């Protein structure tokens, strides 16, 4: 949900996309210029690497320099990046022949190669570029990065509306030069200025470990109406419009972010009927790292197990769950007693025997890599800490079974996720958890995170879950985001 305060930001993004298209289509010898204004009041909602442009390389020789036979068939670029809002520009050439890429020379404020050039503020020279290439012309992808210190200062100023009316300017100029003469130029100018401060309530994310654009969900009183799952996104200060005093409404905030544990703030009392309130949400601790004992009951399983954990940790982090896994690998493949106790099938039929053996670590997750031609299974509800992984498991099987251990049931394609849902057993290329799923893995009372004491904090009794090894007390709060709740990820 976007609020009116952010409309100028969306307009700015649209204008910037148009500028990139226009630049990419500029003809030989043309001069493209754009001047874009961005209101400082909304700078808190803009990531520091928003600006991306595409610049064509070269020109037709007849247009560049008519009647110039024998001229050096190379050009050089002079790139100037100026203005305090900008820190640097990254540049990558596409469709540039490898033999030309290898011969490029850079100097001034540029460093790197044709595949990864970094240009600091100042003037850079890139020499050895072709005047023309057969087929489609090479294109330079150039992305501008805002200066972190400048952005932080403007965020603080925007919070209180204390900045002046003098705008900050940033300029990017690219000149393509042949024989000492500019034959093509591209210029983009950005003006960051005050447009009229509109007071707003804000959520301040403190100690956001990765500076991630977090998913924020509000239950609150808006205009006398109790709203739930009111969606916002942001990395530091997040404008939320005017949230009224609670009245008879539930008031809480849920924050999901990379590299930080989920935050569930109940009974928020910061909101008043007047705008300008700020709710501080401390994002510590970092990710909740669940300890896992990994029993390698088949030979040569270590490499596969390590790869599975790398995939699981990546998927859980990039989906803003705030959850990770810390494995300890124990190779018991040469111990016949251990192999017999663990078994040779991905089944929970012998769960009591396994739980009574010496080959289980109590009160934490256990994973067993066994010699069975099968995928995997989690033994919920009685054995939510037990995962069996067979030789036919895919690279997401472990991540899927851990979802069961933290109360998630199969989704079976009903969630319509932006990407294939990790909890859909029939989907291919599974990559996505919905925010509603992430909430349940963290907050459901039978999630292994809560049962094993990895997480401390409010618990809920959510629908569409596996009850796990414990039963939620009858008094447990049942208020949870819908399972399919999700926000558009940046």
Supply the number of structural domains. Answer: 3
The assigned structural class equals alpha+beta
Named CATH topology of the largest domain: Immunoglobulin-like
| Strand residue content | 25-35%
Mean pLDDT: 82
CATH architecture of the largest domain: Sandwich
Q: Compute the number of strand runs.
A: 21
* Share of residues in helices: 10-25%
Low-confidence stretches: 1-35, 43-49
User: Roughly how many Å is the radius of gyration?
Assistant: 28 Å
* SS field, number of helical segments: 10
Amino-to-carboxy terminus distance: 14 Å
Shape, please?
A: flat
Any idea of the CATH class of the largest domain? Mainly Beta
The main β sheet shows up as: 9 strands, mixed
Walk me through what this model shows.
The chain is an alpha+beta fold and about 500 residues long. The chain has 3 domains: about 5-195, Immunoglobulin-like (Sandwich), CATH 2.60.40; about 205-280; about 290-450, Collagenase (Catalytic Domain). Helices cover about 20% and strands about 35% of the residues. The chain is built from 10 helices and 21 strands. It has helices spanning about 5-25, 60-65, 100-105, 150-160, 300-320, 335-340, 350-355, 395-405, 435-445, 450, and strands at about 30-40, 50-55, 75-80, 85-95, 105-115, 115-130, 140-145, 170-180, 180-195, 200-205, 215-220, 225-235, 235-240, 250-255, 260-265, 280, 290-295, 325-330, 365-370, 375-380, 385-390. Strands 1, 2, 3, 4, 5, 6, 7, 8 and 9 form a 9-stranded mixed β-sheet that branches. Strand 11 (about 215-220) and strand 12 (about 225-235) form a beta hairpin. Residues about 1-35 and about 45-50 have low confidence and may be disordered.
